[in-house]
Please model this.
Amino acid sequence: MTEEKFSTKAYLGMDLLRFTTAGSVDDGKSTLIGRLLYDSKSIFEDQLEAVRLASIRKGNEHINLALLTDGLRAEREQGITIDVAYRYFATPKRKFIIADTPGHVQYTRNMVTGASTANAAIILIDARNGVTEQSYRHSYIASLLQIPHLIFCVNKMDLVDYNEDVFEEIKHQVSAFASKMAVKDIRFVPISALMGDNVVEQSKNMPWYGGGTLRYILENIHVGSDWNHIDPRFPVQYVIRPQSEKYHDYRGYAGRIVGGVFRKGDKVMILPSGFVTTIKSIDDIDGGVEEAFPPMSITIRLEDDLDISRGDMIVREDNVPEISQDIDVMMCWMSEKPLNTGTKYYLKHTTQDVRCLVKEIKYKVDVNTLNRISDGKELKMNEIARVSLRTTKPLFFDPYRRNRNTGSLILIDEGTNNTVGGGMIV
Model:
């Protein structure tokens, strides 16, 4: 019993890495994820049997590991990935959440959705085809979303006789393009997802490659520094007032820290009121703590009774975010109904919900060439543009490059309640 409790606690305390995959059609994204799951012993017997039977029906000679992630019937019939497929697995070192995203240009919005919370992105390149326009597009979107770690997997090396020159040429081309993007950590791995080379086990077919396997890289990427630990930001999600005699004077503000470090005794400012007070205590699920940092979910109690509600933000008195009703964002449009100037939407930012007006579409971005297109008429589905918004009340935000949480927002259609756009504050 003691050993079981220890194992459960150890699992819950393990580091978590979220990563996304992207690549052109047939580059092998789903096969790669299937290989990772299969070789990491993260597939249940009934799942494997279902995939084996499905492979036989499709006439495959071997088990088609891509079927582990291609869950939609349309995907299995067409052999492509359409929706974002999420999978979960763990190794002795780390827990993982995988977002397998589509490669087609018409599913750019799906890639943005899957990559928006990722710590790392795996971008696949077919060794036979080399770097394509979609490779550049996926790289740009990953850099736009400020994914800190990019791993370029040159796949299907078995089909080019594991040629080192092919790998080095692709590496050179990608490095030249990546130099234009603000990405901190870029790595290259030659693999064969079908055969398993350099995915989980080191390949004997590529002795010239001196780096680690893909799984080794994923297990050892340092994600702690990906969070902003400089600017304290605590959006209030819920006010806790227990209606009991024992806790009749308890007033706590619950939420998730999205930046900086908060300590008991710190002087803090409440936005939008601007009142200054002191942190009385910080509580988490196990009781009181002396300090808290991202991404901890906590409850903060303050020395003074102030009027604080959902949507307010607790910050440090000497470190205040930008406060404005006029915002410029890089917007990825996700709706079949185009975005036009003068249109009104609901806007969700951290825990705030406000209404906004689209003032201007400044320019679009050609995600294949990075060129700007001065066409401010409308923004169609899967297009990306710089857009100016005006909100009905001030937002408290940081530029997306500084904080992905306080620098991102979504637009919601007032009539359908559908999410129609995702924006990164410039």
